[in-house]
Design brief:
With 71 residues, this protein is mainly alpha-helical. Helix content is 86%, strand content 0%. The chain has 3 helices and no strands. The longest helix has 22 residues. It is flat and about 45 Å long.
Length: 71
């Protein structure tokens, strides 16, 4: 809600996605992290609930872990 007041919904989604990707501190995953941030921000925008975002983030992490473990 704080970013949305300052930047509008689209600006908040983009800004939070950039912040999300930068906080993951992995250059190789910068674009995928940004895309995940977009997905999570849009999910929050649609539902106004963090629960779905937490579940989606955990699911994405589990899939990434499973892919890395099987490689």
């Amino acid at each position: 809600p704080g970013l949305a007041k300052r930047l509008g919904p689209l600006g908040a989604i983009l800004a939070s996605s950039v912040i999300f990707s930068l906080l993951h501190i992995n250059i190789a995953l910068l674009i995928p992290s940004f895309m995940s941030g977009l997905l999570l921000a849009c999910l929050y925008q649609r539902t106004r609930s963090l629960l779905g975002c937490v579940i989606a983030h955990g699911t994405l992490n589990a899939l990434a872990f499973a892919a890395a473990a099987s490689a």
